[in-house]
Predict the 3D structure of the following.
Amino acid sequence: MTAGRSKTGRSLLLLLPLLLFLVGFFVWPLFSMMSQSISDTAVLRLLPRSTEVLAGWDRQSPPTPEMQAALMEDLKAVDDDQALGDMVRRLNSARSGFRTLMGKTTTALGDTTNPPADLVSIDTRWEKPEFWLAIADALSPLTDRNLLAAVDLGRNAAGEIEHLPADKSVNRVILVRTFWIAALVTFACACIGFPYAMIAASLSGWKRDLMLGAVLLPLWTSLLVRTAAWFILLQERGLINELLQTIGLIDSPLPLIFNRTGVIIAMTHVLLPFMVLPIYSVLLTIPKNLMPAAASLGAHPLRAFLRVLLPLSLRGVASGSLLVFISAIGYYITPALIGGPGDQMISSIIAFYATGSANWGMAGALGVVLLVATLLLYSVYARLSAEEPGRR
Amino acid sequence: MEHSVAEFIRFDRITKFYGPLCVVENLDLGIEKGEFVSLLGPSGSGKTTLLMMLAGFEQPTSGNILLDGTAINDVPTHKRDMGVVFQSYALFPHMSVGENVAFPLQMRGLGKADIAGRVARALDMVQLSALVDRRPSQLSGGQQQRVALSRALVFEPRVVLMDEPLGALDKQLREQMQLDIRDLHRRLGLTIVFVTHDQSEALTMSDRVAVFNKGRIEQIGTPRQVYDEPATRFVAEFIGETNLVEGVVDAVQGQEANVRLVSGDSIVSAVSGTVTPGQTVFLSIRPERVDLSEIRGDARNCLETEVTDSVYQGDHLRVQLQNAAHPLIAKLSRRSREFPPGTKVFAGFSAGDCRVIAP
């Protein structure tokens, strides 16, 4: 018993590096990204006294002297400029005008020679309950603001969920565009990958190796190099346009780069292996004599394909499509380099929030939306493949 | 070339090359309607290739295949109307048993009610009606092969082709299926071309057996003919067990010949084909036709031998003998008395129980 347990313990020890790696580089970042999207402590951690006092406020009447005194105390105690900046940005996004108001207030509070009596004497805006309401709302440690904003929703003054005004609603358009581009790429990959896998599976020896090698080669090349290569091929005076013009198929160059066409071409090329390999492996498991059997039973080759080979290889097409689609919705470099402004996908927006505007909450929220969409797709696929007839 | 009116399938000087390799060489074979013909031979003898050409999966390099008097070389498989049963069953794994059997009927555009009735009858014929909704993967090997059989028969094909259909089954099941297929053949009047490398299977089931070797037919005849009257050394050795003894022809009288063996004994034997005096030949003596006794009996042929080994094998007693020049094997009925090693015995057999084969 003891020996058995110590054996299990030792074998678990072998798994330890893997578990540590997974926790450190997968579970923890994922968890912190998701918590970023709903956590909202920028205001709370700087205003502990105000939190206590504001809890007893009725959210309508003008600010009491106690409220003003508590907020002044809190603001005086702040010595971290960056934390202050975070708080101001947070409050300003809830109610515009906070940036100037806070700037003015902190300057006045810093004037030790002539300390102000209360906040209203610094700026009369402190009399208005709206500003206090914004602070009170921002004191909750959790928020759905980012998640709602990720799908172009927001809360109005009464706290009800409503659509954001059109000039702020870009996320939903970009999300739909992301799924649309991913769907087009998946479709293109399936159209090219299925016949390709069929031919490869029907060959043998070096011909098969050559075909598989050709499709695997992009996987072994750096993504940047591949994308740069497409840059050269697709541009207005690039190889493709020059060739087509030389043989006289077109008179003026085709617009292939900085638009949707270019993005789809380049992404299809990069993601093709993820379609070809699953289909190829499924095709290999289909017994070779099923098509002759179908023919002997009176099936025309086309009908034999539709009734026998196609249904049997659908499992490969489904898993290939899932792989391609999930990879495609997270694509970033290719649309950024080959696409135009109208072809940017959700990852570009996430990257903008994360590195461009340091809005980790929004970046996390969009990431969560992407993750949920992917998990939903996967669960649909898992259910479909579990019901797949003929599965062993 | 004129062929008999009843001849249904005719292979007319068929040759098939795979690259430089000749697998079927200038082969002629006629099969009658309602006949059960086995193509028997070792692997690589061309029997399966011939079947594949009849099914339309392969094209002959030269020669014609005629079905009911018309050449079918250019008819694609799906229009040949031949039911094929494969060794590995080739059932469609994504369809139920019923859907598998219905497939050829759907391909022929039959009505739903008609299809349902025919499928039910076809499955009833192989006693699988209860399994109509199962998937092939849920069936045993024998059940799968019966589904494949009923699928190949349900559309009433003109010819049924079977490519070692029982090869993957265990011995007991195989013997049961042999009898079942033979029974179906008789009841439905099917024309069946059956490929096998198992000689006992071919003898059990066939009207005629064609023995293949190296792309040619060595002999074609009823099971009794190929067993009792082997035309060549290959046939004698491939079908059943035999004693092959070398000798020289002394004289020929009608269908019999006198052969002097190396040991000096003179044997009177039936003849396959033509031999001339002075020719070196082989004698094929079936072990179960040899009788042993301790006194010289009245059999026409008698060899003086000594027992070297004797093995009890349940249904028979297998005795190894040695005479002055060559070994000999005898299979005796289990009622026979024991022959301990060292016993001097006389091995006797009639002229009709051995065969002269030109080498």
Remarks:
- The interface with chain B takes residues 287, 289-290, 292-301, 303-304, 307-308, 311-312, 389-390, 392 of chain A (CB under 8 Å).
- The first strand of chain A starts at residue 153 and ends at 155.
- The first helix of chain A runs from residue 2 to 38.
